[in-house]
Specification:
transport, amino acid transmembrane transporter activity, mainly alpha, globular, about 70% helix
């Protein structure tokens, strides 16, 4: 990156020419329904099935419902900014490319690495949650994985390496390797099943809610609510991955805003319902567990439902891994195509049209991390990187409205500059609440 190019900016013409170049061309196969499913695939999973329990037990108590609303508001304002930029620039790379266009190459280089590190830490954290539910499901049918093979040294006494977490990451890598259409199809099936399981849990568990479990409602005060929102922000980062799919979408100008805003709205409603019922069924003090929904069902004696919910959690978390893995490889692909990473990372497979070396890199990095770090530390590292990406995207909307007012905006964020400014304000407040 030469000094003369430090603040070079991309134009819309450059973006469009990149997406049409034969050597970099990706398959345009995704529809609005696929994008909503990608968003639900990425958002609904770890947040409901893993992070909710830890955040309720240690940060917010039953007021975790308010934490989800607060985090959802922050994401809603940011999502509006994402929707506008994704409708203008149909290109892989998400915030990295938006920043490149609005603020120049140097800032884009920083946020590109921020996003790569975000995904490299997010994927192992999600895989650890998957491992917890998978181990729990096997134990329910009498199959016990040895402690040394199911936990890292940080997770449990006698732990050595988390083999289930590493194994699922390898499966996800293979799916991403063979193509985006195949990845989307598997994701759509998984999303349908996990939404069914979540609705099933709501219907079954709501009859066991005891209002006394919601007392005290705010055991950690407003500070706890903000701390809880900062931690569960991790659950919402999926819609950022949706925006990385713009280059492989049939009609990105129309479909990207539908995919981003639709998936976020549906996910927020489900999060609020599940967290309210979960803390009503079981005391929040009992929820500090890597599989809190399954544990709640076990504690109230619904063992017959425990297996189904565990299977739904496994499916749900698998789709999160699918979409997040996909997003990480597209950011590496975009940076390589721009010359900010070695050119080998932007080479695509002649048959599958996927960035193979980027897939290899993410596979190696995430499987190594998955075996050795606890989920709490990983979630905190991921959150601050995601928050920075949301802030820069919101700034990008304001900058481009004033510097390039004539861009063809198929979706216009309402209330600019106030809407993106609210996103920045909400996200900064959550960032300051991180440990």
């Amino acid at each position: 990156m030469s000094k003369s190019n430090l603040f070079r900016k991309k134009t819309l013409e450059m973006v469009l020419s990149e997406t049409e170049a034969a050597e970099y061309k990706l398959k345009k196969t995704l529809t609005a329904i696929d994008l909503i499913a990608l968003g639900l695939g990425a958002i609904i999973g770890t947040g409901i099935f893993v992070i909710t329990g830890v955040a309720a037990a240690e940060k917010a108590g039953p007021a975790i419902v308010l934490s989800f609303i607060l985090a959802g508001l922050a994401c809603a304002f940011a999502a509006i900014s994402y929707a506008e930029l994704a409708s203008i620039f149909p290109i892989a790379g998400s915030t990295y490319n938006y920043t490149y266009i609005a603020m120049g190459e140097f800032i884009a280089w920083i946020i590109g690495w921020d996003l790569i590190l975000e995904y490299v830490f997010a994927l192992p954290a999600i895989a650890l949650g998957w491992s917890g539910y998978f181990t729990n499901l096997l134990a329910s049918v009498g199959i016990n994985i040895p402690a040394w093979a199911a936990n890292s040294a940080w997770q449990a006494p006698g732990g050595l390496i988390n083999l289930p977490a590493i194994g699922i990451l390898l499966v996800i890598a293979i799916l991403n390797y063979i193509g985006v259409r195949e990845t989307a199809t598997v994701n759509n099936i998984g999303v349908a099943f996990k939404v069914f399981v979540i609705l099933f849990f709501i219907f079954v568990a709501v009859w066991h809610v005891k209002p006394s479990n919601w007392q005290p409602f705010m055991p950690y005060g407003w500070q706890g609510i903000f701390h809880g929102a900062a931690i569960i922000f991790f659950a919402y980062i999926g819609f950022d991955a949706v925006s990385t799919a713009a280059e492989e979408t049939k009609n990105p100008a129309k479909d990207m805003p539908i995919g981003i805003l639709g998936s976020l709205g549906i996910s927020t409603l489900l999060y609020i319902a599940v967290s309210a019922i979960l803390t009503g069924v079981v005391s929040y003090t009992e929820l500090n567990d890597p599989a809190p929904v399954a544990k709640a069902l076990n504690l109230i004696g619904l063992n017959w439902a425990r297996g189904l919910v565990s299977l739904g959690a496994i499916t749900g978390i698998t789709t999160v891994l699918l979409v997040m893995f996909y997003g990480s490889t597209r950011i590496i692909f975009a940076m390589s195509r721009d010359g900010l990473l070695p050119p080998a990372f932007s080479k695509v497979h002649p048959k599958f049209r996927t960035p193979t070396l980027a897939i290899y890199l993410i596979t190696i990095a995430t499987t190594l991390v998955a075996g050795f770090l606890p989920i709490g530390i990983i979630a905190e590292l991921v959150n601050i990187g995601t928050m920075l990406a949301f802030i820069l995207t919101s700034i990008g909307v304001i900058v481009l409205r004033y510097t390039q007012p004539d861009l063809p905006r198929k979706f216009r964020a309402p209330g600019v500059p106030w809407t993106p400014l609210l996103a920045i304000l909400f996200v900064l407040s959550l960032m300051l609440s991180l440990p």
